[in-house]
Design goal:
2 copies of one chain form a homodimer. The first copy, chain A, has about 425 residues and is of the alpha+beta class. Chain A contains 10 helices and 19 strands. In chain A, helix 5 (about 290-300) links the parallel strand 16 (about 280-285) and strand 17 (about 305-310). The termini of chain A are far apart. At the A-B interface, strand 9 and strand 12 of A face strand 9 and strand 12 of B. Strand 12 of chain A pairs antiparallel with strand 12 (about 145-155) of chain B, so a sheet runs across the interface.
């Protein structure tokens, strides 16, 4: 091909690119809309129908502004003449995405976004709609309530807040008693996560209305606990797997376990119309909450019979780096898989296909080990989502219909891997 | 006095100042504690026993960082060698104080603080304890619940969220019906303000436990409303008193009034065990919410008989700049003060003594006009507080015990001004 030919090709390609770009812009500029997760009347962030997100941040005197999607792009924003900095992401996965903005070294939230508690601070998030999905949105169906309750815990010596979902008919049928799902948030989040980010109340309203899930109470507790009188551990500079960090996590897990079993569950059973036996009590959690679920329930199978680990399950320290030994892991409860299947009605684990390798491998490893040991369980993969809330919304959508329905349980067991 | 004398005096004064300062620092450094309003485990902001607040903000590459207390100091922060910027306030009033941090022109929230919705964004706030005051803190008394409910409004064509406080015995005495207080947030806030900033649930728990207030339901609704199909007004660059702004506010007030009376109240009365008559229905609100209270209730005295305006009452546009004409203001309902006193069981207005002059004068003017027209009412002044939440917590503490207690009402009327 001659030089002239090359130039002609290049010109054509450039023209096509320009044309395509102009088409894109024409489409985009009509198509970007304020995210449903925005603060009151905020015009940015915006999302288009291709799941691209535009961030806009006012910092007229800053010399550098970066956007930091925790499971997505981390990039310099571009300064505009009006003092605003802007950035547009490529298409990203559906669901709410945490992000922060870094202004001359200060990591802050975006005033345009609703604040969500994540990463141990009030962070920003942008909700990217999932095409065709309405299961986590409010629909014209009977609505449950999310109740903020406070209980005094003798374990921690403090007043503790929990959020409690009561199903639609709870107040109108005042003699009916309900099974209970204890549902835990992840590390760095709090008890508000499952309704504010996760939309657990709408997911259950819709599942109950369609007859897919049994009406149930959901208790969302604060996952951090420290025993009364115990000083806060000093973990400054301590690496993740250090003895100090291990001890701090162990102490927290143990205090949480006691708070849950000695303070929270008795409080819930005396405050709400629950069926207070193990056949009507489930526990699940995401990430750190999944770890807590396995920790608490295997210590207390007299209290729970349905277990779920969403992107988090076994105690990573107990498992080590290799395959768990099923004859001793989980207090040895799975050593006899038939006895375990009779005792535990549901063992459910899930992970997003786009989660970081370490997370994915951990859950896949557990799945393989359970298979190998012939332990009945459900393994669910959320397609195209990472260690983020859309994974956990889908987890709940799959998990909740399998709870408290023994007849259903049988028919579902065929799907178990 | 000679030059030498002056120098000696100056030296003495300086030495005393240094000594005093060192005493202060010695005391302070032991005394500052993380605020109860902080995000999980955050060590700053801190408050000392003199009600001084220390702010600390990480911005290693910023060239200027300011702190902006909305009703308090606005000041440059000082850069420290470690990349943190710090500022210590003089002693400030008790209660939660909204603030933001301005980093090279970007106004953001402080990651150390819990995020509170105010000023139309998720802002920071620091809680300064009030010495000896426990009325707004959780106590070892029976606890009510705060319920998040969603209702579909035909007025706005949207799903709307409200928070509902139910008193302690609501679930255990399932045949008892309760009176209802509708309690509105201020401009730029939302329905979460009265529990998150205001601690209305704890205030009522404590008042009910001590027998001071009757058990009641409190409904906290979202104060923004736009009629279905009505486009958002374009108010960019429009001054506060412009015709466009007046119309936008009028439209919002009118849509809110219809949403409240046609959608919210019927929803509440069909969802909760209310006594659904005017003798058992109150409305109050702070700032914009006070304005909405007077707007809605005077249009619907067939629905309400107890009214409260906390740092906000009459429609500022209707009142103009001078004294209202009581024969025509408020739909002329007060033209006959005796008839009004028979019809309205409580008219309550309050203001903080340290509020901005314009706010204070407006309420004081209304108080004087009511006195002059011989309209029975209660006028309450919160000592030493501004247009802030401690004023409104105190308002609620004074207001709630006067509700739904006809016999009490009589004995209280002596205190009315």
């Amino acid at each position: 091909m001659s030089i002239i030919g090359e130039n002609t090709s290049m010109r054509l390609i450039r023209a096509l690119m320009l044309f395509a770009t102009s088409l894109c812009f024409a489409q985009d500029s009509d198509d970007f809309k304020p995210a449903t997760s925005n603060a009151l009347n905020a015009q940015y962030p915006r999302v288009d129908s291709n799941s691209r997100v535009q961030i806009r941040f006012k910092a007229p005197d800053a010399s550098k502004v970066r956007v930091n999607f925790w499971s997505g792009p981390k990039a310099d924003m571009e300064k505009q003449a009006d003092g605003f900095w802007t950035f547009t992401t490529p298409p990203i996965a559906p669901g709410p995405h945490y992000y922060t903005v870094i202004v001359d070294g200060a990591e802050v939230s975006d005033p345009g976004s609703t604040a969500y508690f994540g990463g141990s601070k009030w962070a920003s998030a942008v909700e990217v709609p999932e095409a065709g999905a309405t299961y986590y949105l409010p629909q014209d169906v009977p609505q449950g309530q999310v109740r903020e309750v406070w209980y005094h815990s003798k374990v921690t010596g403090t007043w503790r807040r929990a959020l409690v979902y009561t199903p639609p008919a709870y107040d109108t049928q005042p003699t009916v008693r309900y099974p209970v799902l204890y549902l835990q948030h992840g590390g760095g989040e709090d008890e508000s996560g499952w309704t504010r980010q996760g939309k657990a109340n709408f997911i259950l309203d819709n599942l109950i209305a369609s007859g897919k899930a049994k009406p149930m109470i959901i208790v969302m507790a604060n996952g951090y606990a420290r025993r009364a009188g115990q000083p806060a551990p000093d973990l400054a500079g301590k690496p993740f797997n250090s003895p100090e960090m291990r001890k701090a996590i162990k102490d927290m897990m143990s205090a949480f376990e006691d708070d849950m079993t000695q303070a929270l569950i008795p409080f819930i059973d005396s405050t709400f119309r629950t069926v207070s036996d193990r056949d009507h009590r489930a526990m699940a959690g995401l990430s750190m909450g999944g770890m807590q679920t396995f920790h608490v329930t295997f210590d207390h199978l007299e209290l729970f019979s349905y277990l779920g680990g969403f992107s988090g399950a076994a105690n990573v320290f107990a498992m080590g780096n290799g395959k768990p030994d099923m004859t001793t892991a989980f207090n040895g409860e799975m050593a006899n898989p038939n006895a375990f299947a009779r005792r535990v009605h549901l063992l459910w684990i899930g992970v997003g296909t786009d989660e970081p390798e370490r997370m994915k491998q951990g859950i896949e490893q557990l799945h393989a080990s359970l298979d190998e040991a012939k332990v009945q369980h459900v393994f669910y993969e959320s397609p195209g989502t990472s260690h983020e809330w859309q994974t956990w919304r889908r987890d709940l959508k799959d998990f909740a219909p399998r709870l408290f329905q023994p007849s259903r349980q049988q028919s579902l067991s065929a799907q178990r891997k």
